[in-house]
Write a structure and sequence with these properties.
Elements (H helix, E strand, L loop, with lengths): L14 H22 L10 H4 L9 H8 L3 H13 L3 E6 L2 E9 L1 H25 L1 H21 L5
Antiparallel strand pairs: 1-2
Helix pairs in contact: 1-5, 3-4, 5-6
């Protein structure tokens, strides 16, 4: 390996590069805007948990499955978010031996704020591409993501 960058093929960057560009762009805007709105203590890596929280709570094992992260990583992220006051661990009413990760009042406010920011980001892209083209793009991207999820083994 020489360290030289390979030229992009005529068809443009591959799927991994394109999706990474989208991910990083959205993350930068989302977390910068969250910081401007008073949520300056959370980091983009926390998105693996924050994106999948449910108001009534969710098990850490389910967070790991949904985010594609290892249980240990999710556990560390939950610890960080708990320390910052965004989530709490509570007994699962369906199984008292298990715990749910549930957003606190601050966590719920962050979730609402993030949802509004994402709506604005998506709205801008829909306006730029046209509503129909954007809906088709999201549908196709979702199909690719679901196919990848169905054919790959997740972390254990």
């Amino acid at each position: 390996m020489t360290g030289h960058r390979q030229p992009e093929p005529e068809s443009g960057p591959d799927l991994g590069v394109l999706t990474a560009r989208i991910l990083f762009s959205v993350q930068r805007e989302l977390f910068a805007t969250l910081a401007e709105r008073g949520f300056d203590d959370i980091l983009p890596r926390s998105g693996a948990v924050l994106a999948h929280l449910r108001p009534d709570g969710i098990r850490a094992s389910e967070l790991a499955r949904l985010s594609g992260q290892h249980k240990q990583v999710v556990g560390t992220l939950v610890d960080d978010l708990e320390r910052l006051g965004y989530v709490e661990r509570v007994p699962d009413p369906a199984d008292r031996r298990a715990k749910l990760v549930r957003p606190t009042e601050r966590g719920l406010l962050q979730m609402e704020t993030a949802t509004a920011i994402m709506r604005a980001i998506e709205g801008r892209h829909a306006e730029s591409l046209g509503e129909e083209a954007y809906a088709t793009f999201k549908d196709a991207l979702g199909q690719v993501a679901r196919t990848r999820g169905a054919t790959a083994e997740g972390p254990g």
